[in-house]
């Protein structure tokens, strides 16, 4: 936001909080009313006029006018100027002052290299910490199985509802399309917009044609071959995708009851019967869809429709989700834009993310990205009776085994969604049923905590929300509070860094500090020389892939992945290979990092090194960041090593050809892939080379540079380039 627009918005807000008119402010400031009006429109006024208006607001009783006046007079030297309403603005002001002192300190050449380098590294960390806190944009991602009630809960929690006067059934008021499961075709984002609107990011041409190919293959086989496996599995596309593609091609099924009997006809099947080949059928379906005409990405509310804006958003979203608007492409994501969305939730800029429901395999690439994003809070949604639910359990297990750090309860929460009567059906230790929903929630919360503890997870915040009977305000506030806790941890980290820098600069002349730092560096170097190597590989990265494939719930998910050379949004073999490599690397390095932690604890316990306590803390922070970077790189290495070989391998044709040969499809596909992995062992060697190189580059080398305090600082980002400031990506 430009300075003039920030002044305009703040002045307008301060005036609105007082409940006075522009004329009242202008009279108090002894200005013409037009000057106040122009200021609130974002026009530039003289500094004298702005001060007069702020003085007038203060005289009229504004609690923040003088603070804003001081804010405008402040010169930000090192930190990007934050919003005046930033909850951590005071922390950022302190950081800017400390960074100014650092710049002055480093401009003086007489200070010894060891201390200069420590302060430079603290400065870099502090700049990263300020970057996290300066921005106000955050996401809240809701994750859960299809049909669990996730979209319904989001709609009620965040008032995404059409007016009750237009719809009598409360469950039909939701702006997000809801149903018994498999309703929403893609991920949906709800955010603040300039006006009411719906925008889409379309599927890529390649993926769009692949979806059409799946649909045509299923339809063709239903007409010309026995596509059903004896075990009961049927090749299929998801019902939401089937519905959208049929609408786009105008091939909707029709039901006729004219003869007194219910008769359903399938125009897609009829079209297939009129074609000589599946390729011809596919070409005719694509032609009917008129893909070149589908270029519209934005739709905006027009009051001429005489509909309530939220009713309009609901209808347009539903039509896009079903492929019913002729010039709109099939979406990869849909954004719902609502003016002033999140205004009642504080000053953060919130985007709600309704992730695509988990139908089968939970460890999807899109969900992992949300779990790793430091600006995203995660809400695991589940049914009441099975809370915390299978998806939550699978993702928590994945995080424990793959991410660098343990699970941070501040990153996520569990939202159990009871149906009426489920809470009061809970029984206490003596077998008595709960007398109220509140008592039932308490009993269920204890059960959830017990399950999580058994799985090695610290207690997560647990919330309950029955959309029919529970008030949303408290739950909504708890969800938003997650983000405030994340930001407060960032602020606490920033204060620690400020204190460390000030401590070093204030005590720079003490010879004891310099000697202690040099001794710590010497001992760290000795430790690294004696403990340089990473442990041997413990687990092949494809082992978990095999067990996952054999345990997949729907064979059609594996069928779809086979038709995409293993890279399917619902089951991505390449992503799983990366996760397998990271899981093995995590297991191999845990012991090393525990040894390092014990070594650093011994240094902290040494009274002779007390003056170097900040230095030891910095080594610990650097090591934790190195571990995160190492595991992320290993995961990417595993994915990239296998991506092209898997794409180009004929193994997928063999896998896809197994469909329709009777029961055991999943086992046969798993066997083909296992044979391929074992035959292509050279790729394992490449992964191991990448793991070894990453270990040396991203863990050992940065710590060695920390140990070599006598050498001049490297140019550029230098020794601290791999350090990630709070919060760690793996904190989730």
Mean pLDDT: 88
Give the DSSP E fraction (strand runs of 2 or more residues). 5-15%
Task: Enumerate the strands of the largest sheet in spatial order, edge to edge or round the barrel.
Answer: 6-3-7-2-8-1-9-10-11
Query: Could you tell me the number of beta strands?
Result: 13
Structural class: alpha/beta
Outline type? globular
What radius of gyration results from the CA coordinates? 30 Å
Helix content: 40-55%
Q: How large is the count of helical segments?
A: 25
Oligomer: single chain
End-to-end distance: 30 Å
Low-confidence stretches: 227-231, 710-732
In short:
With 732 residues, the protein is an alpha/beta fold.
Give the helices and strands, then pairings.
Elements: H1 3-18, H2 22-29, H3 33-40, H4 47-59, H5 65-73, H6 89-107, H7 113-134, E1 137-143, H8 150-157, E2 187-192, E3 197-202, H9 205-224, H10 239-249, E4 254-256, E5 263-265, H11 267-273, H12 278-289, E6 298-300, H13 309-321, E7 331-338, E8 349-354, H14 365-372, E9 376-383, H15 390-402, E10 412-417, H16 437-454, E11 462-464, H17 472-506, H18 511-530, H19 543-551, H20 555-562, E12 567-568, E13 571-572, H21 573-605, H22 613-648, H23 651-656, H24 665-679, H25 682-707
Parallel strand pairs: 1-8, 1-9, 2-7, 9-10, 10-11
Antiparallel strand pairs: 2-8, 3-6, 3-7, 4-5, 12-13
Helix pairs in contact: 2-3, 2-4, 4-5, 6-7, 6-17, 7-17, 9-11, 9-12, 18-25, 19-24, 21-22, 22-25
Structure overview:
- 54% of the residues lie in helices and 9% in strands.
- The chain has 25 helices and 13 strands.
- Helix 6 packs parallel to helix 17, helix 9 crosses helix 12 and helix 21 packs antiparallel against helix 22.
- The model is unreliable at 227-231 and 710-732 (pLDDT under 50).
